[in-house]
Amino acid sequence: MDLLTLLLNNKIGLENKIENNVCFPPTIESTWLAEGVLQLLPQEQQPSSPEKIPDTLIISAGIHGNETAPVEILTRIVSQLEQGSLPLQHNLLLVFGNLPAMREGKRYLDHDLNRLFGGRYQQLPLAKESNRARVLESVIRQFFNQPAVMASAQRRHLDLHTAIRGSCHEQFALLPYQTREYAADFLQWLDDSNIDALVFHNTGGGTFSQFTSEHFNADSCTLEIGKALPFGQNDLARFRNMTTALQDLIAGRSAIKRDKPALKRYRVVDAIIKQHASFQLNIPEETKNFTELPQGFEIARQQNQSWKITSPANFILFPNAHVAIGLRAGLLLEKYCC
Length: 338
Ligand SMILES: [Zn+2]
Prior knowledge:
- The structure is a single chain.
- The protein starts with a helix and ends with a strand.
- About 25% of the residues lie in helices and about 25% in strands.
- The protein has a twelve-stranded mixed sheet with strand order 1-2-4-3-5-8-6-7-9-15-14-11, sandwiched between helices.
- The mean pLDDT is about 90.
- It has helices at about 5-10, 70-85, 100-105, 130-145, 145-150, 185-190, 210-215, 240-250, and strands spanning about 30-35, 35-40, 55-60, 90-95, 155-165, 170-175, 195-200, 220-225, 265-275, 280, 290-295, 300, 305-310, 315, 330-335.
- Zinc ion binds next to loops.
């Protein structure tokens, strides 16, 4: 049985990884830290760089349960590590985010998991996603507090997603708000990975990548890598650039180089928050991400509040009028040149 089948059938216990056929070469120490959270630590230095302390890398997928391509990419990477065809150079934590929602093919069951990090889960009654956010925060803390991981100079977290909505830029990264500089080598890796755009947040939030950036100084981002389809329907060739870029990070190499037009940069200027049942978005449901909006256009309104485009260069990201009250129904962006 492959790893994806084992995960979806709830067949991986914390204590019986070998019986479940997830078995790595002796150069890799593997531990399941929680359901769907696999820690892999290299057990010997690569001969090419005997002095180098391993970096630390978290790759997460399926924080939204219906976003399956990243989950399939991660399971493929796990089998390459198992077979020894992909060498492990760095400390690696692989997180399969929302397994109950994955099993039902849904984005989430009770609450959007990617809004609950940074302790926000505490404001909700105990439910599937609020408990999962608590577990994941605790596991991430445990992971970073180990001596082998604490010694590493570089920490990165890539949280992989796909979208149902079409997008003018098919692949893009959302960088969490942070007061420190964004690391140049991290931005270079994003550039090399052939994605189309970067979006810089202007304020903190409850995302997984914001949590690891803010609390553990990781170079983190949410990566939107394409279209969401059910398990088994993904054409993984469409994600080859990101798969290679992730393999580069894991193996400590740089096989991928940019061969597409220059990366576009945007920053968030405003968030449209739905706070009333009267809320309405004045754009068609199928409006693509990064659609440019004309100056003066009223993009959304609700009781006592209206959002108008005040700059000639505003773009809409993640428009969704159907979110729960209190949640974000869209982000307004401007182009960002530095
Ligand atoms: Zn998502």
